[in-house]
Design a protein that fits this description.
hpI Integrase, Chain A; 3 domains; three-stranded antiparallel beta sheet
């Protein structure tokens, strides 16, 4: 015997095989059937079906779990992402999201699931920054599910990731920078460190630099690509942002360092003979092949030890260049253009620690207006 239907429940009845079935009429006139081992299960599925119809979302999506959706999404967005970015997304999904949440139906994913995932990852020792990256990937992917009509809302928007860790930016003083370059004399990559300090270029941009993008006579270079290492090998990808494609004016010391570097590289090429691989790279290994960021980082750490300097990241050479320019009163817009930031606001937010000296310079300039 079937139970008496409650108001708005739709048709629920018991089949001869003992299962409970429910049916709802679709807007086009067809029927949607759901089944459950118990009356309550059938009722829950029928209510879900009625909600989908009311919200105009596709039927049958209750069988789509998060694993299947995220794998489909990764395939869909791959052509629009830089290779290294897509690889980070794929690693984030494969290593952190799918093992914990992959079997959950997409439509039943809740804010509580994500909050529990973040807490679990922090407990396992994943850094807050990495958990924030997991959150960013989920927010983007679930936003696409919402846009595709697979979800009524993006539940990641309802979850707060771990707070951003306050990290003091490391920079070298002028004296420390000179010590670094002095210790690099004789190093085959001495010009790399000089250029990093003299231009503020990112490591990937430096390693992707080709001689055809450098005009030593005019003292300028063009940033047109960034070198990324993926599972398929090295890839010359588009720069980080549209503004990252830029022209950089070189200091005289940087031009001279590049001239010395080119002469030394031509000698290496002659010694290598037929083994040389011509990629036109400014910075390469002894056979002309691209340099990995990991190898450069290890070499840079050894250089810091030789110079007796504190352990900073290679990327901190970029911070050193920007901080030095701003402290010397160079206009923030010029610094933003040189670094390839998307807006001058990014520059000022990143280097707010230099703001006091800028305010002091402004006060001194206005002093002329008010001094009797």
């Amino acid at each position: 015997m079937g139970k008496r239907r409650g108001s708005g429940e739709g048709s629920i009845y018991r089949r001869k095989d003992g299962r409970w079935a429910g049916a709802i009429t679709l807007p086009g006139g067809g029927r949607k059937y759901v089944y459950g081992r118990t009356y309550q299960e059938a009722r829950r599925k029928l209510e879900e079906a009625r909600r989908l119809v009311a919200e105009g979302l596709p039927m049958g999506r209750e069988r789509l779990n998060l694993r299947r959706y995220l794998l489909d999404w990764l395939g869909a967005v791959r052509p629009s992402l830089r290779p290294r970015t897509w690889q980070r997304y794929e690693e984030c999904v494969r290593l952190h999201v799918l093992p914990a949440l992959g079997d959950i139906p997409l439509v039943r994913l809740s804010p509580a699931h994500l909050q529990s995932l973040y807490a679990q990852k922090l407990q396992e020792g994943l850094s807050p920054a990495s958990v924030r990256h997991v959150h960013a990937v989920l927010r983007r992917s679930l936003g696409q599910a919402e846009a595709w009509g697979l979800l009524p809302r993006n539940v990641a928007r309802l979850v707060r990731p771990p707070r951003r860790e306050g990290r003091e930016m490391a920079t070298l003083t002028q004296e420390e920078a000179l010590r670094l370059l002095e210790a690099a004399q004789g190093d085959r990559l001495a010009a790399l460190y000089t250029l990093a300090l003299a231009t503020g270029m990112r490591q990937g941009e430096l390693l992707a630099l080709r001689w055809r993008d450098v005009d030593l006579e005019r003292g300028v270079l063009q940033v047109r690509a960034t070198l990324q290492r993926t599972r398929e090998g090295f890839v010359f990808a588009e720069p980080k942002t549209a503004r990252s494609r830029r022209q950089v004016t070189l200091a005289a010391g940087a031009v001279e360092a590049l001239r010395r570097h080119r002469r030394a590289q031509l000698e290496e090429r002659l010694r290598a003979g037929e083994l040389w691989e011509d990629h036109d790279l400014v910075f390469c290994d002894e056979l002309g092949r691209p340099l990995s960021g990991t190898a450069v980082t290890k070499r840079f750490r050894r250089l810091l030890e030789r110079a007796g300097l504190p352990r900073v990241r290679f990327h901190d050479l970029r911070h050193t260049a920007a901080s030095h320019l701003l402290a010397r009163g160079v206009h923030p817009k010029v610094v933003a253009d040189m670094l390839g930031h998307s807006t001058v606001t990014v520059t000022l937010d990143l280097y707010s620690h230099v703001a006091p000296s800028l305010h002091e310079a402004a006060a001194q300039a206005l002093d002329e207006l008010v001094r009797p």
